[in-house]
Input
Amino acid sequence: MNKEKDIIILGIESSCDDTSASVIKNGYLLSNVIASQKVHEEYGGVVPELASRAHQQNIIPVVDAAIRRSGISNTELSAVAFTRGPGLLGSLLVGTSFAKGFALAQNIPMVEVNHLQGHVLAHFVREYDTEFDPPQFPFLCLLVSGGNSQIIMVKNHLDMEVIGQTIDDAAGEAFDKCAKVMGLPYPGGPYVDRYAKEGNANAFQFAKPRIPELNYSFSGLKTSFLYFLRDRLKENEKFIEENTADLCASLQRTIIEILLDKLVKASKKTGIKEVAIAGGVSANSGLRQAMINEAERRKWKLHIPKFAFTTDNAAMIAITGYYKYLRGEFTGQDAIPFARMDIRQ
Ligand code: KG4
Output
């Protein structure tokens, strides 16, 4: 009997401040190891030079752990998939160079992966003993992270079109920058989420943007938040510490309303009711609940990723590499990373 050959992909992610490696066999997750970099906390943001150095230190132990946990041996791997961009160039260079060396040593092909496509395809990672109910094509994906806020029409695994995007800051940046103004640690998004649970979401009102079509803008909200605090602090220097929960809840509600307003418009415009979220901000509990409520109201079929697949991870790179492998889309040793990349690249 002819047994189909297993397709086993090693995925490498190093686009920002997480070094991650994952092994996926025939679309099923065998391992996903992530090393986050703590070094940036004291600077209140990612320092590119430090990120590259930390990737350099982390990459071999992380890949080693991912391969050991997967239970497969290097010689069984079919290909190595790596993030080619978008991201920080120095960080991307570490993953790209590692992938080249690994591919040469194992004599296997390389597959380049667009980080943004990876976030969307995180919904297609299968796990043993877990129900698999991926989005049906075409679907809309709200991709919200520290670097992106986009509404993507996903026509097929590798056919995506951005139909709306931020013209300035990303939603994650709005969370992080406003959190920084309140003196919260970096990255501030998870702290805002935590405080918001205790606060009154209607305590304060902040300016919402008026941007045409399906595009977003978050820089005005950041400025409105900053001026609001500046004025209140003149009257009461303890204003932030006395109102942290209400400030976080009101800020979070505003960001969620901005995000959902355009997503609802996108669904109406395209007639698509299959809807997904992806990216680091999709870990936000308020956004998740708001999406569930909206989906019930509008009869959407909603797809929310597991927490492990929201922030940067290599499982999403490996699964994207798997679909590209099936199509025979390989990359040569002359591949260089790109800091900027469109979702179609
Ligand atoms: O996808 P990601 O790990 O990295 C990028 O590619 O940007 O996203 C990181 C972003 C940060 O801005 C972080 O504050 C935000 O995701 N984030 C959250 C939450 N968890 C992570 N924002 C709001 N609520 C959260 N629970």
Summary: Strands lie at 8-13, 18-25, 28-36, 79-85, 110-114, 139-144, 149-156, 159-165, 274-278, 301-303. Residues 229 and 235 are 10 Å apart (CA to CA). The longest helix spans residues 239-270.
